[in-house]
Amino acid sequence: MTRSAALWHRTRTVVGGVTAGVVLLVLGAVAGRADVAVLGVAPLLAGVWDWRRRPTEPVEVTVARPHGSAGELTAVAEVVTTGPAAVLTVRHGGRAVVQALVRTDGRREVPVVVRTVRTGPQDVAVVDAQGVGPGGASVSEPTDPTSREVLVLPDTRPLRELPLPPRLRGLTGAHESRRPGEGGGLRDVHPLAPGDRLRRIDWRVTARRAPDLHELYVRREHALAEAVAVLVVDSRDDVGPDPLTWRGETAPRSQDVTSLDLARVAAASVAEHLVGAGDRVGLDDLGVHRRPLPPGGGRRQLDRIRHALALTRPEGEPSLRLRPPQLPSGAIVYVFSTFLDDQAAHVAAQWRRGGHRVVGVDVLPTLHDRHLGPREELALQIVRIAREDRLAALADADVEVVTWRDAPEVALAGLARRGRRRAGAAR
Fold this sequence. Notes:
With 427 residues, the chain is α+β, with helices and mostly antiparallel strands. The protein has helices at 12-31, 34-52, 203-209, 259-276, 299-311, 342-353, 374-396, 408-421; strands spanning 2-3, 8-10, 60-69, 72-80, 85-92, 95-103, 107-114, 120-123, 126-132, 138-140, 149-152, 175-191, 217-225, 228-233, 280-285, 293-296, 332-337, 357-362, 400-403. The protein has a 6-stranded mixed β-sheet with strand order 16-15-14-17-18-19, sandwiched between helices.
C-alpha cells in the first residue's frame, strides 16, 4: 500500500475562475458598474466554497489478489480517498496502459486486466492514483507507484506423440513393452505352463494342435509399462528476439517472448502430455546447483513441475558443471536450451554416450535483425555459424534436435515414429 502526502492543490480551472471573479469585481467597482461586479461574485464564491470543501486526508491505493496465467492477468486496484473521484493510471512494461477517471465515494475497487506473453515472476501492473476534490476544484499529490508481484505459470500446447526411451520400466503404464505380461497386444501362443491363467486358454488353437487335449495352449500378451522422462531446462540464458539486448544492458521488451518463456511452455507441454499418458516426469536445471525434482506422476506432479518452471530464471554467474546431473536408469532426457554455448550441448552428448535417449529442444526465439548495423550483423553471423556447428555436432552424437518455434508437435511425432522403427525400441 502507498499513500500521498496530505496536500491538495487548486486546479487551473478554479484559479482561473477566481481570478476572473476578482477582475470583474475590481472593474465594476472602478467603473461604477454594479452589473459587472455582480458577474464576478458567482465564480468567486464558487471557487472559495469548493476550496473550503477540499479533502484533507491522503489518497491510498493498493493492488491485491493477482491471479491468472500467461496471456491474461487479473488484479484488483483499490483506491481509498475522501474525495468523490480519482484519476487512476495503470502502467505495464514501462509504458502507460490506461488512464481513467473513476468515481470513488470514499472507496472503490477497480479490476485491472493485463495481457502478457511473459511467464515467471513479474509485476501485474504499476498503479498510481491522484484524488479529485468536489467540483474538480482541487487535486491531490499523486501517490507513489505501487504494484504486486505475481508468479505467472506457463501455459501448455497440445502435442500429438512424444518419443519414448528405449527401455520402459514398471509393471503398469500406457505403453506396450517387450516382456510378457497382460494388457498389451498378442505376443505368442504357447503351451500352458505353471503360472499361466486358465482364462488365457485358446480353445481353437488347442483343438487344432491337440484334439485329444493332451496339451493346452494359452495366448500370451505383452506387458504394459511406463516411461521415465527428465526435463532439463537451461536457465543460464534468457534472451529475447532482439540481439541488441543480449549484452544485458537493455532488458527485452515486455511484449517479446524470450527463450526462457519458450522453454517454460515447451517443458510444461511435454510434462502435461507424459503425465496424461501415465508416465513419470522429473525436472532439473542446468543453470543452478539445487536438488532436482524427482520423477513422479499424477496431477500434483504436473502442478509441481509448472510451479518450478515458473520460478526458473538466471541466477548470477552460471557455474561450470564438471559432470552431468545423475539421471534414472533408462530415462529419456529432454534438454531445453538456446545452445548459444557449449555446455548444454556437451552435457546432452554425455548423456547420449551413457545410453540415454536425448532430445534437444531449441528454444531460441525468431530473431529481429533488420535494424542491426554492420558490426552487429557480423557478430550475429558469427554466433549463428557457431550455433549451427554445435547443433550439427549434436546430430553426429545421435542427439535428436527439434525447434520449438517451428511446429514442434510435428517434429516430436516424427521422432516418436522413428523410435518405434528402431530395433529393440519400446513401442
